Amino acid sequence: MMNRFIVVSSFVILFTGDIHAQSFHSGNFLLYIDSVISAMPSGIGTNEYKTPTSTQGLLFGTAVEHCLTKKYTDAQVAAKYFGYHVIAFTDTTTAPNRLYYILLRGRDSSNHWGTFVFNPSPRRSKLVIQSPHELFDTKTGAQGAYVFQELSALAFFLNGSHRCNSATASQCSGTTTACGGVSAPFKISDQAHSVDGTFQLGTIILLQQKSDAIVVQLHGFGKGTGDPDLIMGNGTNKSPINNDYLLQLKNALSTIDTSLTFKVAHIDTSWTELTGTTNTQGRLINNSENPCSTKPGEATGKFLHIEQAYSKLRDTKTNWKKVSDALGIVFPAEPTSVKTSSSKLPNEFLLLTNYPNPFNPTTVIYYKLPSTGFTSLKVYDDIGREVAQLVNEVQHEGEHTVQFDGKILSNGVYIVRLFCEGKFQLMKMLLIK
User: Fold this and answer.
1) What is the pLDDT of residues 107-151, one digit of tens each?
2) In what order do the strands lie in the sheet containing 23-27?
3) CATH tag for 342-431 (out of 2.60.40.1930, 2.60.120.10, 3.40.50.1000, 3.40.80.10)
4) Which of 23, 211, 231, 234 has the most other CB atoms within 10 Å of its CB?
């Protein structure tokens, strides 16, 4: 057993027990998110949602920071204090498989703050997808997970309860008819309209770690007579000071589906409904001095608030693809490697350190291939006997992950051998039960 200290502001907290109890899962990522959504408290005014205390908020921010900086064991240490944990999830529905780290509520925790997914190898490292109103804005959570997966974005934030779950009013600007049919202040359980919730805390840490991040929030509304299919805003009624990604997105969507109709807040300035100007993440990203109560004086262009009608956009996975494809046009994928000289080419064939190492009994092996070719990945014991064949097929160039399970093996050192197109590399890993 190991004890570990973590310092957060003026607090020093001692953790005891198995601080490395990170778990490993694999399967269909979208189905996994569906199961998370199914477990959310859906009641209105039933008060399962509680605002994080100041200490919990600091620890939550610490966990997010560690996830963004790939210190997942440290993230697990912080998460245990507020009833969350970090899992390594291998999505087996993609080719190659993708590994995500998910910060989520523990089974026995009463903190319904949401689920936060981090991609250690994003193809769009600036892009963050947020779905703050799943359960009320039907299918926006599942849609957000799909867009995150399709685009290989940096992170995905999903709310943890119905936006009206708490009966307590938020002190931040704005009103809504969402929680009873009459105009009233937003609730503290509404992550898009609170500065004390985990969406706001997570976005603060996100901007500290990645100042060029682009946050896309997916919302939904009931389309009435005369309403467009999409209402799009940058969190203000002002034109962006730099790139107008929102207008680019509108143009891309118009090309993908010519039947879609739009209102864009900073262009159609007479339109004022559902434009996201009281959204606290939007105010933060647009540099408001007080996101709870003060409108920003500028539009950075880095916040995209997308309100969608159900039909043609939120109702099916085929229609989710419209938004995903349009975002892919506006934010092209980054190359997996930069070939600046021939001297750097050998570095593209890499067998990276497995995580965790030491491990018990599972670990994830990472490797990179410079080109498509027959690939073999095998594990041997310390006297050279083959104990596992993990890969034996043609694989595409790029990054790959494979999970290895040593539950039937003895403690000791094992050798991983990666072979592709006449090249091979070796790596040691340690199994300790």
Assistant:
1) 999 999 999 999 999 999 999 999 999 999 999 999 999 999 999
2) 23-27, 84-91, 98-105, 115-118, 153-158, 124-131, 214-220, 303-308, 230-233, 262-264
3) 2.60.40.1930
4) 234
